[in-house]
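re: ur question from the group chat, yeah i did fold both. here u go
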Amino acid sequence: MTSSHETLHFTRTIGAPLDRVWEAYVDIDARSRWSVPAGEHIVYDSADFTSGGADTFRCGPPGHLDNAGTCLYHLVEPRRRFLYTDTVYRDGELMAVALLSWGLEAIGESTRVTVVDQVTSLVGPGMIEGHRNGYNKTLDQLATYLITQRPQSSTSVDRRIRSAHQDT
């Protein structure tokens, strides 16, 4: 099969301070909760979120974690940005390689999150769509996770959810 590739751009303004957004990524238990779509599961076998570090993981439907991957962090600048490559395999076959950059910018009490995903799929265009849909859901789930992790009025929650979707 021929390879497919695309550069995808995602931006969200999340109704949480930059420190909270950063910690939600750094904390592997938190990331495990917000970074996978509903009905999916991820297990990190190792995690080293530092420049030169790597995460290894397995993901898929509960009980069928057939996808294995590695995120190699090339640059981690705390509370500012990080850059990594992400490789995904299924049954020993390389499915995709991506170069991703995440940028974080404080905007008052909120944080602008920008993700650029340069993905190459070796299994067809479905993997590209998977990245597109996956990162849109991931950023929405990150916003929801941060909103629901602290007590607040329902008006505040509604405003923060609208804010998280304004850049879609």
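okk and heres the other one u asked abt
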Amino acid sequence: MNLHDKITAAVRALRAGDDATIIFCISAGELQGLPTPQPELQPTPQPAPQPELLTVKEVDPPAELLTIKEAARWLRLTERTIYRMIDDGRLSSSRMGREYRIHRESVEALLKPVNTKETHP
């Protein structure tokens, strides 16, 4: 019995309502001429997302009082670092309810260049 005959017999048994389990014994000779299975295509890997680049327009906030988030984004620091800078006096701020507002001048003062040359005797 060839492969075609085995499959036909199994289909007839299923149509007749036979609930018996059907087991095929296929020899290597019967497999010749059958299409070979194609390997599954792997999805194309997506490139890693690039870090967000900020333009001057996005970074330079127009307000005189900045939120913690705005100051952090402007200085490219974390919000936690901004809170630390407020606590140790490097940034001046006002508290409005539960929120801090940072004075723009104190942020600009941090951005001014500092002479780092040391004088040696």
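fwiw on the second one: The first strand starts at residue 65 and ends at 66. The beta strands are 65-66, 93-96, 99-103. idk if thats what u expected
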